[in-house]
Specification:
Blueprint lengths: L3 E2 L19 H10 L6 H15 L3 H4 L8 H7 L4 H13 L5 E8 L8 E8 L8 E3 L30 E7 L4 H9 L3 H7 L5
Parallel strand pairs: 1-5
Antiparallel strand pairs: 2-3, 2-5, 3-4
Helix pairs in contact: 1-4, 2-5, 4-5
Organism: Streptomyces durocortorensis
Protein name: Transglutaminase family protein
InterPro entries: Papain-like_cys_pep_sf, Transglutaminase-like
């Protein structure tokens, strides 16, 4: 799947906003720690991906009822669903000058029921023209998402027979329906009911 930026204005994919708050101290502290890998953008992007994937449990896997949505909040609480973790990774990338945005998939149960929007990240290393999708959701048995800029290694490959969809657009900010659900839900159970079934 070839990610396509929503806008040709690359500055939008480096900007801070209410959710991607990469100017906050918590984000900057994490960036400083991850920057120990050196100045290479690819090495830093890989380190940021692994940090979010492996040290911030997906709240559905851990059973954590809390809902996080700001990058700084995700990093502080060390919990979040795929959308929150993706926001955190985008903030960590942008803070180091690596253009990044949010991507989405429509996924469903094995019988095609209960569709839900899943969040991922697309990034473009400096000097590259191509965007690459990565999935910081977090691995578990049956899920093996990896940092790969060539052959995509995301958590799930869409299944057209179940009306699953890879949305190609790379958004500079979280889509409004997802952000509204994250900001409004009192806990993860309520969040599951509020997340959109598609874009």
């Amino acid at each position: 799947m070839e990610p396509t930026p929503q806008s040709s204005d690359i500055s939008l994919y480096l900007a801070a906003d209410e959710a991607i708050d990469h100017e906050r101290p918590r984000v900057r502290e994490t960036v400083a720690d991850l920057s120990r890998v050196g100045s290479d953008a690819c090495a830093y992007a890989r380190a940021a991906f692994v940090h979010v994937r492996d040290t911030i449990p997906h709240s559905a896997d851990s059973g954590d009822p809390r809902v996080t949505w700001r990058a700084s909040g995700v990093l502080a609480a060390r919990t979040g669903i795929c959308h929150a973790k993706s926001i955190a990774l985008v903030a960590l990338l942008r803070a180091r000058g690596i253009p990044a945005g949010l991507c989405y998939q429509r996924l469903a149960d094995d019988d095609g029921t209960n569709p839900i929007v899943h969040g991922l990240v697309a990034l473009r290393l400096p000097g590259e023209e191509r965007w690459a999708r990565v999935d910081p959701r977090g691995n578990k048995p049956g899920i093996d998402a990896q940092f790969s800029l060539e052959a995509e290694r995301v958590a799930w490959t869409v299944r057209e027979k179940f009306n699953e969809v890879d949305y190609p657009i790379v958004y500079a900010a979280p889509v409004s329906t997802v952000l509204h659900a994250l900001r409004s839900a009192r806990d993860r159970v309520e969040l599951w009911r509020m997340l959109p079934a598609g874009l």
